[in-house]
Amino acid sequence: MLALGDRDRAASAATYFKTGPGEYGAGDVFAGVRVPVLRKLADGYRGASRPTLTRLLDDEVHEVRLLALIVLVGEFERAPEHERARWVQCYRDAVAAGWVNNWDLVDSSARQILGAWCLTLGDASELESYARRESLWDRRVGIIGTHAFLWVGDASATLAIAPAVVDDRRDLIQKAFGWMLREMGKRVSRGSLTGYLDVHAPQLGRTALSYALEHLDPDERRRYRALR
User: Fold this and answer.
1) What is the dihedral angle through the alpha carbons of 176, 190, 153, 85, rounded to the nearest 10 degrees?
2) PANTHER family this protein is in (predicted)?
3) Which pLDDT score is estimated for 228?
4) Span 45-66, mean pLDDT?
5) Residue 228: burial class (beta carbons within 10 Å; 0-12, 13-18, 19+)
6) pTM of the entire predicted model
7) What are the start and end residues of each CATH 1.25.10.90 domain in the chain?
8) Is the domain covering 123-228 a CATH 3.30.390.10 domain?
9) What DSSP letter does each residue of 193-224 carry, written as one string?
10) If you compute the radius of gyration of the chain from its CA atoms, what whole number of angstroms results?
């Protein structure tokens, strides 16, 4: 990974992903490897064992952890139904260990693994549980995981986690929640979004509301912003 990296790209990524003292990605280490390169590398890890993925997920280099998550998503998606539970548990363990600790890591895995698993079960309660935790990354996993339901036109999971996150003013929670609301309007129905906003727009933070309104017409956007 280090050999494939680029020093300038690594420095830029460290700034972009907020790795300075006190920032959300504080202390994270970047090699400067582009995501398309990681996806190509992931093809060589097909069939990787759980211990192998655990070692990769525990690496200090951000791109190594992202590589492991890309591989984990692939193993989960290709696994027979009766074997998927072990890959879901591998993901839960990674989140609990603090290895899924930046927004790109969450966004490349939460919908594809935990969200898809909950969708198969027809039960979003685990996503709601994650969304109620204090940890920024656990909470984002819960929010982004509901995207799996939205993809099939089901708003129930997103609406279920909404009360847990609507008052959270942390920027990465605001963006994730607003994004899911926007997707609800796009993938479920415009009415599902506007129905939620009619009641809850005054409660939403500015960032979440801005994301949610992106696909509405200018008059609707002005009306909902005026409710705050």
Assistant:
1) 10
2) ARMADILLO-TYPE FOLD (PTHR34070), DNA ALKYLATION REPAIR PROTEIN (PTHR34070:SF1)
3) 86
4) 96
5) exposed
6) 0.96
7) 123-228
8) no
9) HHHHHHHHGGGS-HHHHHHHTTTS-HHHHHHH
10) 18
Q: Render 159-205 in DSSP notation, one character per residue.
A: HHHHHHHTT---HHHHHHHHHHHHHIIIII-HHHHHHHHHHHGGGS-
**Token digits for 92?**
């839960």
The two structure tokens encoding residue 35: 């995501």
Q: Tell me which amino acid residue 49 is.
A: S
Nearest to 65 by CA among 21, 109, 24, 26: 109
List the Cα angle 80/85/86 in 5-degree steps: 100
pLDDT tens per residue across span 81-140: 999 999 999 999 999 999 999 999 999 999 999 999 999 999 999 999 999 999 999 999
| Greatest CA separation for the chain | 54
Alpha helices in 17-124 (DSSP H): 35-42, 50-57, 62-78, 84-96, 103-107, 116-121
